Amino acid sequence: MAMGTVTAPWKQLLLNALESNANLKHSSFFQLATIGSNGRPSNRTVVFRGFQENSDKIQINTDCRSRKIEELKHCPFAEICWYFTDSWEQFRINGRIDVIDGSNSDPMKLEQREKAWFASSLKSRLQYLGPLPDLPCLSEQPSQEFSLDPSTGPVDAFCLLVLDPDQVDYLNLKSSERLTFTSRQSVNEEKCWTSKRINP
Amino acid sequence: MAMGTVTAPWKQLLLNALESNANLKHSSFFQLATIGSNGRPSNRTVVFRGFQENSDKIQINTDCRSRKIEELKHCPFAEICWYFTDSWEQFRINGRIDVIDGSNSDPMKLEQREKAWFASSLKSRLQYLGPLPDLPCLSEQPSQEFSLDPSTGPVDAFCLLVLDPDQVDYLNLKSSERLTFTSRQSVNEEKCWTSKRINP
């Protein structure tokens, strides 16, 4: 029943789910759980920004000043829970998150961050120019308007998160099908996935 | 801007969100994050089973044999992330979970568990008679059919989780309003909530 494969076998299931729920704006939203600085679980909705090119790594854009950045420095592990409301499918994706901000020393990663910046809408980019998140709002007036040249590269507050999955649990509530996918590093450093059908 | 109150001020916001999203079946689903036995975050979709009578405590039904029970014994803290897809509101609810199974020594809690059992549909109850969850599915044939007398009380596998919130973060993506609610124990043992408007 178990079989080994180098390409992530759950990725096609996820792409299918995205396609069959594409009519819903919120189908690209999922919940990302991390461990808070106080040792308690922390959980919030974030937006799927696609897979990193030719891989099964999941991209998320965030603000360097948000609490999750601090949390991920303490514990880099996270679990995505992604429920598709139309097809009744759930993906639980566990892995380690790489936090890529402007101070990263790897030119490849800085390039990925820049790509993610330009791939997001101008409106999304403007959010990174706003006031510090998670801080008390002191004024009653609406927040100041910012403008940004479309050719301007990523601002300091822009941070790319890359989740490298090593365990995926798939549940289909319509068919009652449940599958777990587990990865291990193979000899040639490539990730190798095995899958197992389990009781829902 | 901060004010103290004994009744949870976020509860009405949540009841309003439930009402304005009531047309969607999935509006009663939320994601529950816990800490796994391996120290990593764990996250899954569960169903809201209402507030405990005259309180702000949140009820969830689950199977005693599910992995989250073991996890909650290691670390009883959890965070709910509840996103309402129609009204674009998010509630992050952090608190401690009380695990109530049939072996509980408190008669009041056993009564709550029994109430929760009878409040759930017969179809839901039948799930607790099925095979062990989280275990490999060995047979290819569809799972055996079970029958249950509607007057039968909670079976061994039925477990009531009661989350006692102490921190709630509310975000409205339409109005860009964000509020945090924090509780502390007052002199007379009652929970006292303070709220604060923060930058979204």
Automatic annotation (TrEMBL), chains A, B:
One annotated GO molecular function: FMN binding
Classification via Pfam families: Pyridox_oxase_2
Enzyme Commission number: 1.4.3.5
Keywords of this entry: Flavoprotein, FMN, Oxidoreductase
Signal peptide region: none
InterPro entries for the chain: Pyridox_Oxase (IPR000659), Pyridox_Oxase_Alr4036_FMN-bd (IPR024624), Split_barrel_FMN-bd (IPR012349)
Highest taxon of source: Eukaryota
Pathways involved: Cofactor metabolism; pyridoxal 5'-phosphate salvage; pyridoxal 5'-phosphate from pyridoxine 5'-phosphate: step 1/1; Cofactor metabolism; pyridoxal 5'-phosphate salvage; pyridoxal 5'-phosphate from pyridoxamine 5'-phosphate: step 1/1
Domain Pyridoxamine 5'-phosphate oxidase Alr4036 family FMN-binding: 8-100
Names of the cofactor(s): FMN
GO biological-process terms attached to the record: pyridoxine biosynthetic process
Top class in the EC scheme: oxidoreductase
Protein name: pyridoxal 5'-phosphate synthase
